[in-house]
Design brief:
heterotrimer; A alpha/beta; B alpha+beta; C alpha/beta; A: alpha/beta; Aspartate Aminotransferase, domain 1; Aspartate Aminotransferase, domain 2; 7-stranded mixed sheet; 16 helices; 40% helix; 14% strand; globular; C: alpha/beta; 12 strands
């Protein structure tokens, strides 16, 4: 069989050593009633590598990954230099596990320490953990952490302009937790979130703001931190597009208490939405309340610098039902890939890519001026909300031309039915933007003409 | 292993020293040895009312977490702030600089229920048997 | 051990932190920010929203600096590709390279999760077929591929348990868990608002139905059980336990962490499970990645199906599509659809092996574990004499007199070129040494490993200091974990950075 190496002679020798008559005899203590029904003979048979690859290639061909899409909304298409996947994909990283034996796991441990350092620098926060599943679960863990830091406060304030997946995951995580109520904070006409009342903040453990929010709008975290802290409440910033942090005032500088983000933009492929990587950063004084793994620096018996998993008493394998989280992994390979990407681009490369995104999205807005109007007036990074009459039908029309004109935001916000959420990154060149403008605009002209006919 | 004669002891391996109605509380030499290298200590807030047998604090080693239970009831008057930066003091000097909290006794009778040094010695012998 | 100056150990080169390499202004990759025009950031972002530190603290290195740095780091790791990695309960089998190739095909890698369903039929078809495999293997009808890892699957499963009971008027308060359970079980239960009652096993390491009955009551929401358990023993009372749980109105959660011991042997659905999480990175061989990403799909019985996370895949005339139309759902447990990259790899593995191959996986995993058990039982006492499946658990109790303990044996194994077994777990076995060789190891490798363990046990008796001070041959020696925890240093800081 594929991947099981024994010859029949070896199997016989091993059985002799064990003192068993057959492999089946080793399973004989499993109740017969269960074994009798457990056959997998009805499953398809195996196949060789060539046949398997052909089947997978056929499936891949039924995906239209090469079309022109202006989709962001929580997952962002970015260029990934070849070195990133090649280096992070090395088998020594990919096929190791949790570094339980640090002496033979220094590669994973030092890379993770570097990841934590890079994320702390990117977010401007004091400490970052080794990673969470994704941005949405990191947001939920951040909310739970504020409940540990501000026990007895019954409210969780979450911006309606926070990505709906993040809001839904927070709601799922909170279900069943006693005496906590999730309160949605509406957005204002500029697309940003007006701050809740002092009375609400006093009863809340945290306020969660998107940064940028789901409309692409950049919230004023500095002002929010002042007001939130005035009521001894905590501020959580949630960034779905981590690249934005290269240009925006850092959550740390703004006074945020917990900064979480989705790290997919930083060197991970879209991959139909996963695996991504939750980034989780906070203040040093909250470190014992952090969920997830942490790598720390120390020395070995010879005094040489080295790295270990540390502060593990927070975690499930020691604290069990009193752990800060049930998580027992950190999307480790994704964290390695992200720190390779951040290293390769570095201070200057990352800034240039972020600037290219901001300029590109604004250039796109310029091109679409005749097609629709910006729904929100707030400053934005690489995503914007375009209002246009008959948005859904025009989106469909563009689709017919092989263009996904962003996300019809009515899917997520019924009150925004005639809008499209559009994203432009460094992968969208001038020609692509022209195609989008033409597809949406031509249709606008056509529908105007039809309207004229009817009149 | 040290078990000073002047102190009283609980079955949870805490020691108590009473002076003027205030109990100083720490963990015993035996307890610190069992825990291994102590890396972090969590103490109650000053002014906290604690009930006998309730959790008084938490002591962590690299791979274990242990609750410290209040051997007496009372109000916390002082905590050993130095443990925040030097938790190893609890290993090095458990009956001296490694003390944890001082508690104004709610019921001085609580102390009478604790073991003497000899009783604690016997208790340890039984526990290890 | 000091070495002569200037002489390097072959193959393992020293390397500073990436932040300690490079020079101000150096960069590995950039792009032209102005290629499509558009305004400069200063023209559209107000000063108060703009970053002004020039990204201080990120590296300034060349591409070659990066390649060399991380290549060197990687060489400091042992991995399943390097050597036997017998980490019990973690199932460190060979991760077929072909599955890395298929997942990197642009048809999957470049696929945006919000593309219209008509554009992603290949991915949806793959996910639907993978769900079919999981259904067949588990004997349970409902599948969600959303959870990102095993622990995340546990959380998802218990949220469904809670929703099920809440739907019937009372979410209940308690979850029963055997004392040998993985720490994620109680942690997941607590996250769902449940208190945990631990139950002991009998002297043979098996849970008795009477023990379960004694702890059951109308306030028990579920019982979580790992089968085979964390000692590698099949819980042979499982059907009676399931019946008792069912009679009490509670649900049975099967932790699928050891599902690789059950392929073709027993189906959790037949055992009476209501919910099970798969660990695709264990059973179906997706790489562990130094700690993820994994994937933790859940399978559920008919009565839990309405509560599965959304969106769910449905098939209609136009093909497969995502649907949110399940009013009793617990909702989303993460963004988008799951760790799809891991699902693609697992699907490749399942197609390669097929039904016969999967049955062979379990048979050979059990053979290998029992071979190690037989070959070591005379030098290391077994925790239990009970017949075991895919892993075996020893204790260090015979070595007490030598002063060398489980940890020391584990460290010494590193000198012999093997990763160490899982140690000190399960907690119910003092000094536990848990070995899981997996089915992909050859007899030759197993014999080498067995010889190494036997040699180390002999060393522990003859030259205990050699074992207690191990490892000696590794890139770094034993590390001071106490220092790391007492004065945590969790990041590199720029030397000139303004404190605070």
């Amino acid at each position: 069989m594929r991947y099981t190496p024994h010859t029949s002679a070896e199997i016989a020798a091993m059985l002799r050593a064990i003192g068993a008559e057959s492999v089946d005899a080793l399973l004989a203590h499993v109740p017969e009633a269960l074994r009798a029904r457990a056959s997998l003979a009805a499953l398809p048979g195996g196949m060789d590598e060539r046949a398997m690859r052909a089947e997978l290639a056929a499936l891949a061909a039924r995906n239209r990954a090469d079309g022109l899409a202006f989709l962001g909304a929580g997952a962002y298409p970015h260029f990934i230099p070849a070195a990133v996947e090649q280096i992070a994909g090395r088998a020594e990283f990919a096929t190791a596990y949790t570094p339980y034996q640090p002496e033979v796991s220094q590669g994973t441990l030092q890379a993770t320490f570097e990841f934590q350092s890079a994320i702390a620098a990117l977010t401007g926060m004091e400490v970052a953990n080794a990673g969470m599943y994704d941005g949405a679960t990191a947001a939920a863990e951040a909310v739970l952490m504020t409940q540990r830091l501000r026990p007895g406060r019954p409210l969780i304030l979450v911006a309606r302009a926070l990505h709906p997946h993040y809001r839904q995951v927070i709601a799922t995580y909170l279900a069943g937790i006693k005496d906590v109520e999730l309160v949605e904070v509406p957005y204002g006409p500029d697309g940003a979130t007006p701050l809740p009342t002092a009375e609400q903040l006093r009863r809340a453990s945290c306020l969660v703001l998107g940064y940028p929010n789901v409309f692409g709008v950049v919230e004023d975290l500095t002002r929010a931190a002042e007001v939130v802290h005035g009521e001894d409440c905590l501020l959580v910033s949630a960034t779905a597009e981590a690249l934005a942090l290269a240009l925006l005032r850092t959550p740390g500088a703004a006074g945020v208490d917990v900064a979480i983000a989705e790290g997919q933009s930083l060197g991970l492929p879209l991959g139909y939405g996963g695996p991504g990587l939750g980034l989780f950063a906070s203040r040093e004084r909250f470190v014992r309340s952090l969920p997830g793994r942490l790598v720390g620096e120390t020395v070995d018996v010879h005094g040489r610098r080295g790295y270990v998993l540390t502060l593990a008493t927070r975690e499930q394998h020691i604290r069990r039902e009193r752990a800060t989280s049930n998580i027992c992994t950190n999307q480790g390979l994704c964290a390695v890939q992200v720190v390779v990407y951040l290293s390769l681009l570095g201070r200057h490369g990352l800034a240039s890519v972020a600037e290219r995104n901001l300029r590109g999205a604004h250039a796109l807005a310029e091109r679409l001026r005749g097609v629709g109007t910006l729904r929100f007036s707030g400053p934005y990074f690489n995503e914007l909300v375009l209002s246009l009459p008959d948005a859904r039908r025009r989106w469909q029309h563009a689709l017919g031309q092989g263009i996904v004109a962003g996300l019809p935001l009515g899917d997520w916000y019924p009150e925004l039915e005639d809008t499209l959420l559009l994203c432009a990154t460094e992968l969208h060149d001038a020609a692509a933007m022209d195609r989008l403008a033409a597809a949406l605009g031509a249709d606008a002209a056509a529908s105007a003409a039809r309207a004229g006919d009817r009149a | 292993m040290q078990i000073p004669e002047t102190l009283r002891y609980s079955e949870e391996h805490e020691w108590v020293l009473v002076e003027d109605g205030v109990a100083t509380i720490g963990i015993t030499d035996h307890a610190q040895e069992e825990l291994g290298d102590i890396v972090f200590v969590e103490l109650p807030a000053i002014g906290a009312e604690i009930a006998k047998s309730a959790t008084l604090g938490v002591v962590e080693s690299v791979k274990a977490v242990s609750d410290v239970y209040a051997p007496v009831s009372g109000t916390v008057t002082t905590i050993n702030e130095a443990l925040a930066t030097k938790p190893e003091t609890m290993n090095e000097d458990p009956y001296g600089a490694g003390w944890m909290v001082k508690v104004a006794l709610a019921d001085p009778g609580d102390v009478g229920a604790l073991m003497t040094a000899q009783q604690y010695r016997d208790f340890l012998a039984r526990e290890q048997a | 051990m000091s070495r002569p100056a200037g002489v390097l150990r072959y193959g393992l080169l020293p390397e500073p932190l990436i932040f300690e390499r490079g020079a101000p202004g150096r960069t590995g990759a950039t792009c032209d920010p102005t290629e499509v025009g558009g305004p400069a950031p200063v023209d559209v972002l107000p000063a108060g929203l703009r970053r002004d530190d020039g990204l201080a603290g990120l590296p300034e290195v060349s591409e070659l600096d990066v390649v060399r740095h991380f290549t060197r780091l990687s060489q400091w790791n042992l991995s399943a590709a390097t050597t036997l990695y017998p980490l019990g309960s973690c199932t460190m089998k060979y991760n077929p390279i072909v599955n890395e190739a298929i997942v990197r095909s642009p048809g999957f890698a470049a696929l945006h999760p919000l593309l219209p369903d008509a554009w992603t039929q290949g991915a949806l078809e793959l996910m639907d077929r993978l769900a079919g495999f999981l259904r067949a293997v588990s004997g349970l009808p409902g599948i969600s591929l959303q959870p990102a890892a095993g622990a995340h699957g546990e959380l998802t499963g218990l949220k469904m348990v809670r929703a099920y009971h809440a739907d019937r008027g009372n979410p209940r308060h308690r979850v029963l868990i055997p004392a040998s359970a993985h720490g994620t079980n109680p942690a997941s239960a607590a996250l769902c608002g449940y208190t945990v009652t631990e139950m002991p096993a009998n002297d043979a390491g098996i849970l008795e139905v009477e023990t379960v009955r004694a702890h059951l009551g109308p306030d028990v929401a579920a019982m979580m059980i790992t089968n085979p358990n964390t000692i590698g023993l099949f819980e042979r009372n499982i059907q009676a336990i399931a019946e008792a749980v069912r009679e009490a109105g509670a649900l049975l959660y099967c932790d699928g962490a050891n599902m690789n011991a059950l392929l073709g042997v027993a189906k959790p659905g037949d055992m009476g499970a209501d919910v099970l999480q798969f660990n695709l990175h264990k059973t179906f061989s997706t790489p562990h990645g130094g700690g993820g990403p994994g994937a933790g799909p859940v399978a559920v019985s008919e009565r839990l199906e309405p509560y599965l996370p959304t969106p769910r895949l449905v098939r209609d005339a136009s093909g497969l599509r995502w649907s949110e139309d399940f009013p009793k759902t617990i909702g989303r447990v993460r963004s988008f659809h799951g760790n799809v990259g891991m699902l693609v790899r697992a699907y490749g593995y399942l197609r390669t092996l097929g039904g016969d191959g999967l049955t062979d996986v379990t048979a050979m995993a059990v053979l290998n574990a029992n071979y190690i058990r037989a070959k070591l039982a005379d030098v290391l006492p077994l925790a239990f004499q009970t017949p075991s499946l895919h892993e075996c658990v020893f204790t260090d109790r015979d070595l007490d007199a030598t002063g060398a303990h489980t940890l020391d044996l584990a460290k010494r194994l590193l000198d012999y070129g093997f990763f160490a077994p899982t140690i000190y777990f399960p907690l119910v076995v003092p000094g536990a040494i848990m070995i899981e060789p997996t089915e992909t190891e050859s007899k030759q490798t197993l014999d080498e490993f067995i010889a190494a363990v036997r040699a180390i046990v002999a060393e522990a008796r003859e030259t205990p200091e050699l074992v207690k001070e191990a490892p000696h041959a590794t890139f770094v020696g034993r590390l001071d974990e106490t220092r790391a925890a007492r004065r945590p240093v969790l990041r590199w800081k720029p030397p000139t950075a303004d404190p605070g």
